[in-house]
Known about the structure:
This protein is mainly alpha-helical. The protein is built from 14 helices and two strands; from the N terminus they run H-H-H-E-E-H-H-H-H-H-H-H-H-H-H-H. It has helices at 6-34, 38-41, 57-62, 74-105, 111-120, 126-139, 147-150, 158-170, 173-181, 186-197, 199-215, 218-223, 232-242, 247-279, and strands at 65-66, 70-71. Helix 1 runs antiparallel to helix 14 (247-279), helix 4 (74-105) packs antiparallel against helix 13 and helix 5 crosses helix 8. The longest helix has 33 residues, at 247-279.
Amino acid sequence: MKAKTPLARLVVHAALITGSLLFLFPLIWMISTSLKPIEETMRMPPRLLPSHVMWDTYPRAIMYESNQLGYIPFLRYALNTLYVAGLGVIGAVFSNALVAYGLARIPWRGRSLLFGATIATMMIPGAVLMVPIYVLWRRLVLIGTFAPLWGPAFLGSAFNIFLLRQFFMTIPFELSDAARVDGCSEFRIFKDVILPLAKPALATLALLAFLTNWNDFLWPVYVLFSADVQTLPAGLSTLQTANAVRYDLLMAGAVIASVPVLILFVFLQKFIVEGVSRSGVKG
Length: 283
């Protein structure tokens, strides 16, 4: 409902600002803690703003050397994660778009049944599949490499297929029919007609795939053993082990890890809103 009176608009804006501050507070506290002196990170009662700003926390977090674990290659962890997330985005967009197109735009017998079975797999907890997937990658002799991290993205995901399929259903079928009349193959229709119109959904999928790979902690810990191939979440865990109560360094590392995600969201937020809203228009 649109607020029609000045008082109503004031109440609505106040509620929205309050809600925004509640969601932003963890990020603000994280940045503030990363700039505090070490003694203030454990102060009781805690204070939001540091007494004086410690800008050198970030260089020390990036180039930290522990007495127990030695040099911690924080930038190497970031580059490894960026590599895995980039391949994960490419695989997710390519594989899920192909499957979703076949389920949404091409009529064939058993399509609805297969789509229902695909959606049903979303009810299987991911933790249940970790052991058999680990055994599979172990038999492929790829444990300890990046392949188990980005490889599954090329096999599709039930949620991503559902998201793109719902969006593809909102694109007028007359466009595909006109392209067929002009002699276009099915793949060319998919590439030149559907994909350009599906940029909002593809941007949403790309961001979700990037977040999944960027924030993944448990799976990399299981399949990566060498410090040179660890990802950023596991690297932050190593930093925490090396600095039991150095919350300033931990928060500095967390802020650095959050920057790429925030930048992507700023540039893609318009496409994300449009992609999510249009994906639920037609079932």
